[in-house]
């Protein structure tokens, strides 16, 4: 389970508040106040942060690491809905609408999270309406990504879904590389398969073909260099 809980001022990393896009409109004094509301927790890889049906009592911000939001299907399979990484927030549903958590959240690696309790979070929204608008904007973005996932699983050819998810990870995790864009994949091949609703073998076969065609270069299990972004984009059109 979660490890030691402590004030953010004792955190070894930058203040969570300064790393979160929804707080970007706040000045230094306001950020300092937000930071004073934060406590942190540390989780090991594979731990549940939120369980479906529970009632989160804090806004959760990923300070370091990555987590996945997922549901278990009727067939007993895992369907990954979102990947949250540094600066992302979650657990807002119960805080805004008294709605229970609609998915599980599990760490993909050692993860440090920051928490703002329900009362303080609601006070933040009253004090700073800009934060409310930024949260609504991010929730709309998530809805759009979920709609795209559903579209990918229905309308697009199965192998095109692999190209689509590589482009998604490029946008979020891509770093400049001399020969293209280096992407550290947040999921294993099996995880990617769960995320886009295909068989693991399909992911491996498609990535091997893309490598043979010079579109990507696979480095181990969790890194790829995107050599030809335009070729990936053509595949999903």
From TrEMBL:
<dbReference type="GO" id="GO:0005829">
    <property type="term" value="C:cytosol"/>
</dbReference>
<dbReference type="InterPro" id="IPR036390">
    <property type="entry name" value="WH_DNA-bd_sf"/>
</dbReference>
<dbReference type="InterPro" id="IPR012318">
    <property type="entry name" value="HTH_CRP"/>
</dbReference>
<dbReference type="InterPro" id="IPR000595">
    <property type="entry name" value="cNMP-bd_dom"/>
</dbReference>
<dbReference type="GO" id="GO:0003700">
    <property type="term" value="F:DNA-binding transcription factor activity"/>
</dbReference>
<dbReference type="InterPro" id="IPR050397">
    <property type="entry name" value="Env_Response_Regulators"/>
</dbReference>
<dbReference type="Pfam" id="PF00027">
    <property type="entry name" value="cNMP_binding"/>
</dbReference>
<protein>
    <submittedName>
        <fullName>Crp/Fnr family transcriptional regulator</fullName>
    </submittedName>
</protein>
<keyword id="KW-0805">Transcription regulation</keyword>
<keyword id="KW-0175">Coiled coil</keyword>
<dbReference type="InterPro" id="IPR014710">
    <property type="entry name" value="RmlC-like_jellyroll"/>
</dbReference>
<feature type="domain" description="HTH crp-type">
    <location>
        <begin position="156"/>
        <end position="230"/>
    </location>
</feature>
<feature type="domain" description="Cyclic nucleotide-binding">
    <location>
        <begin position="22"/>
        <end position="142"/>
    </location>
</feature>
<dbReference type="InterPro" id="IPR018490">
    <property type="entry name" value="cNMP-bd_dom_sf"/>
</dbReference>
<keyword id="KW-0804">Transcription</keyword>
<keyword id="KW-0238">DNA-binding</keyword>
<feature type="coiled-coil region">
    <location>
        <begin position="136"/>
        <end position="163"/>
    </location>
</feature>
<dbReference type="InterPro" id="IPR018335">
    <property type="entry name" value="Tscrpt_reg_HTH_Crp-type_CS"/>
</dbReference>
<dbReference type="InterPro" id="IPR036388">
    <property type="entry name" value="WH-like_DNA-bd_sf"/>
</dbReference>
<dbReference type="GO" id="GO:0003677">
    <property type="term" value="F:DNA binding"/>
</dbReference>
<dbReference type="Pfam" id="PF13545">
    <property type="entry name" value="HTH_Crp_2"/>
</dbReference>
């Amino acid at each position: 389970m979660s490890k030691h809980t402590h004030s953010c001022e004792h955190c070894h990393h930058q203040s969570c508040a300064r790393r979160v896009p929804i707080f970007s409109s706040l000045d230094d004094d306001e950020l300092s106040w937000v930071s004073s509301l934060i406590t942190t927790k540390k989780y090991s890889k594979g731990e549940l942060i939120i369980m479906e049906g529970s009632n989160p009592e804090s806004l959760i911000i990923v300070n370091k690491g990555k987590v996945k939001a997922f549901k278990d299907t009727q067939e007993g399979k895992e369907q990954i809905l979102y990947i949250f990484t540094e600066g992302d927030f979650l657990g807002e549903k119960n805080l805004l609408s008294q709605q229970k958590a609609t998915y599980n959240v599990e760490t993909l690696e050692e993860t440090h999270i920051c928490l703002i309790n329900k009362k303080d979070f609601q006070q933040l929204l009253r004090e700073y309406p800009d934060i409310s608008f930024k949260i609504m904007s991010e929730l709309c973005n998530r809805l759009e990504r979920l709609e795209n996932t559903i579209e990918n699983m229905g309308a697009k050819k199965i192998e095109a879904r692999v190209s689509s998810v590589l482009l998604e990870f490029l946008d979020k995790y891509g770093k400049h590389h001399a020969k293209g864009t280096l992407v550290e994949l947040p999921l294993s091949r099996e995880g990617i398969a769960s995320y886009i609703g295909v068989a693991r073998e399909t992911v491996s076969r498609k990535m091997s073909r893309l490598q043979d065609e010079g579109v990507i270069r696979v480095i181990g299990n969790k890194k790829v260099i995107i050599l030809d972004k335009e070729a990936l984009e053509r595949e999903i059109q």
